[in-house]
Amino acid sequence: MHAYKYHKMTRFAFALALLLTQCSAPSTSDNHMTADVVVYGGNSAAVIAAVRAAELGHSVIMVSPDRHLGGLTSGGLGWTDTGNKAVIGGLAREFYHRIFQKYQDDGNWAWQTKEQYGNRGQGTRAIDGEQRTMWIFEPHIAEEVYEDMIAEHDIKIMREEYLDRSQALTLDGRKIKQFTTLSGKVISGSIYIDATYEGDLMALAGVDYHVGRESNEVYGENWNGVQKFVFQHRHFFKEPVDPYVVPGDPTSGLLPKISADPPGENGTGDERIQAYCFRMCLSDHPDNQVPFSMPEGYNRDDYALMGRVFASGWTELFDKFDPMPNRKTDTNNHGPFSTDNIGMNYDYPEATYERRRAIIEEHEDYQKGLMYFLATDKSVPTDLQKEFNRWGLAKDEFLDNEHWPHQIYVREARRMIGEYVMTEHDVLAKRPVPKSIGMGSYAMDSHNTQRFVTDEGLVQNEGDIGVRPDAPYSISYGAITPKKAQCANLLVPVCVSSSHIAFGSIRMEPVFMILGESAATAAHLAIENNRDVQDVDYDLLSAKLLQAGQVLEYNRN
What is the reported pTM? Predict the structure, then answer.
C-alpha cells in the first residue's frame, strides 16, 4: 500500500519565505482588478487552488460568492468522506495536518477532553498520530485553517461577490479576457479556475456541461440513470408505507414530499439530481446548545410521512449522528425520510441567484421543521424523542447564521463535458485513465433523486446508489479541462467532466482539494510556457505534482 509520509518540516515553511520575494500582488485600478490567476469560488477547492498558485509565485484573486471559506468542509461536513487516506497528498493532506495541529492545543477542547473524545473516526481513526493528521473536526476549526492558509500567502479575497450572469464574458478568441461581478467590479486574469459547486463561470464561458443523470447507454454504464430496484443503503422504505392522505384511498391525494410523476424506466436518463441537505452540527452539552424551535410557516402535515415511518417500526434515528470533538456531531441524512429534501432541488443548478436562495431557504425551513417535529410530535416514539431532546444546535458554531450551517450540501449541479469524461469504467478500473492528476477512492455514492408511488401503491425512494471500487483510481487531467475548441484558459476542478455516477465518487471534499491544487499547478505551467491549458506538458505537470506530494498512482503492494 502506498503510504504518504508527512514531514514535520511542512512545505509552507519553505514556501512562505519564497513567496515574500517572488509573489506579485494583483493590480487594481478603480473597479478593475487583474491577476495571473483568478479563482472563482470560496470552497475547499478554491482555497487550495489559490494557495497553490500563490506558492508558485503568481498573483491571485479569489472572487468568492461566499462570506465564509471552505464550503462544505467548514460548513458541517466534519466527518470526512476520505475513502483510502493513502491517496490524499499535497495541500489536501497539509489541511488535515493543520487540523491535527489545532487539536494539539488544549484550548480547543472546550466541552470535553481529548481523552474523553478518544479516537473515533470513519472506518479507522479520526486522529493518526504517526501521520500527524486528523480527519474529523468542528466547522469553526476547519474555517480557521483555511483562513490561516490564505493569510500566510496574503491572497486577495473579494467576498460575497457574485459573477454577473446577465452579462456575457469578454472573450479574446477562445480565452476569457474578463468578467464582471454583480457589484460592477471587472476581473481579468491569464488563467481562470471555476471552483464553485455550481459551475456558473464555466457555463457562462460557453463550455459544454450536463445536468441530471445520463442513461446507461450514453457511456455504456450499469449504474447510471433510473435505478428503481436498487437498495444498497438504508435510505429506503423497508416496510410497506401508504403514500395517500387517507390510507388506501388514492382519491385523497398524496402526502407531502411524494411525487405523482412516474419514476421512469430503469437505466434511462432524466434531469433529476441527487438530494441536498444541510450537515448540521449538533451538541449534547447543556451549556453549548440551542434548542430546536418551530420555524416560521411550520406545517405538521409536511412530516406526516415521517410519522408513518416510525409506525412501521423504524428505529434508526441516531445512526448518522457522527461524533466530532467537543460533544458535537456531523449529522447527515439517514433512513427513508430524513434531512435530504428529495426532489426539491431539480432547478437549482441552472437557477437564478434569487431562485437558488429560495431553494436554500425552503431546504432550511424543511430541515428545521423536521427537527421541531422530532422534538415535539406525538407520533415520534417516546424513547427516541427523549433521546433526541438531549440535542440542540451547537451554540458556538455558525455564530453569524443563528448556528445553522452557512453552506447547503450541493451534492451535484452542473458537470462539464470536457476533454475527457470520467465514467464508472474509470472508477471501477475497467480501463486505464490517461494523465492522472490525483486519485479518488470513495464509493460511487448517489443520494436519492426522487420519491414515488410504486405499482403496488406504496411509497418508495429511488436513486440511492453505493458501489465501491476495488482500489483507488486515477482522475484524468482531461476531466478538469474544457474542450479545446470552447475555452483555452479555464480549469474546472469541482464541476468536473464526469458521468452522474462517476461524480458520485469524485465529489468528495478531499478530492476537490486535490483537484484544486492540480488545477493551480496546471495554470502555473500554462502561464510560464504560454500554453493553452489543454496543451500543458503532462510530463512537467506530473513531475510538479509529485514534487508537491500529490499521489498519482496507487501501488497495492
Answer: 0.94
